[in-house]
Design brief:
single chain; alpha/beta; Rossmann fold; 5-stranded parallel sheet; two-stranded antiparallel ribbon; 7 strands; membrane; transmembrane helix; DUF218 domain-containing protein; DUF218
């Protein structure tokens, strides 16, 4: 019963509410002119499916499955890519916090460091005027987690994945490190690997921060429109568009 209630609620609140309103408009138009009603129905259905976990999980999962986690690490430095940060927000030992995906990547890097003893290079700058500098925040948090200062490298100028790769390549050349283990979200890994290849780096992929479960079960919630599903769908489409741009313009 609880799942039925959740399903109904998803059409009472946004974004499901907008689907209901659009369907009402389709019915109203149908009585006047069927051609625009059919066009609007098609747009409404496209919007609806893009809002459902069924579609968003399939899209993001197809990205996350391209690179499995390796059983054996082969590298001399752990390179972590940023994924956004807030500024001025309170933290245990300072101000500024990494967003969820970036924090998950950092946590994975710390665990890999403890397994291997390899240094960590965090790449990411201040993307917007009101966001935090990702690498500077990561450095503070890594020190707070007990990572030795000499094992931390930061690249705090990058504004996108292409710059992550180019600027990381410059630092690795300066330090004599040549075998990066690339840590980023599973959905982001394909695009990141393309940019690192274009920058002349041969990286070992270590994806983390997964969104879609490995096993997808059909249930009413998979057909419920949700803000999270819209965000995930947009994220997946952004990655596919980014991969295309990396192949065409890098």
């Amino acid at each position: 019963m609880i799942y039925i209630i959740k399903f109904v609620y998803s059409f009472v609140l946004p974004p499901g509410l907008f689907i209901v309103l659009l369907l009402g408009l389709v019915i109203w138009l149908w009585k006047k002119n069927r051609r625009p009603a059919l066009v609007l129905l098609g747009v409404t259905l496209l919007m609806y499916f893009s809002m459902t976990p069924l579609i968003s999980d399939a899209l993001i999962g197809s990205l996350e499955r391209k690179y499995p986690q390796p059983e054996t690490l082969q590298g001399d430095v752990i390179v972590v890519l940023g994924g956004g940060a807030s500024s001025g927000t309170p933290d245990i030992d300072g101000e500024g916090n990494l967003y969820g995906s970036a924090a998950n990547r950092l946590l994975t890097a710390v665990r890999l460091h403890r397994q291997t003893g390899l240094p960590i290079l965090f790449s990411g700058g201040q993307v917007f005027s009101d966001s935090g500098n990702e690498a500077d925040i990561a450095q503070r948090q890594l020190l707070g987690l007990g990572i030795p200062e000499e094992d931390i490298l930061i690249e705090n100028q990058s504004l996108n994945t292409e710059q992550n790769a180019v600027n990381t390549a410059a630092i690795l050349q300066q330090t004599g490190l040549i075998k990066p283990i690339l840590v980023t979200s599973g959905f982001h890994m394909s695009r990141a690997m393309l940019h690192f290849k274009n920058a002349g780096l041969t990286a070992q992929a270590y994806p983390t921060d997964y969104i879609a479960s490995a096993d997808i079960a059909l249930q009413p919630a998979k057909f419920s429109p949700s803000p999270g599903a819209i965000s995930t769908t947009g994220l997946a489409l952004k990655e596919y568009l980014g991969q295309l741009a990396a192949r065409l313009f890098d």
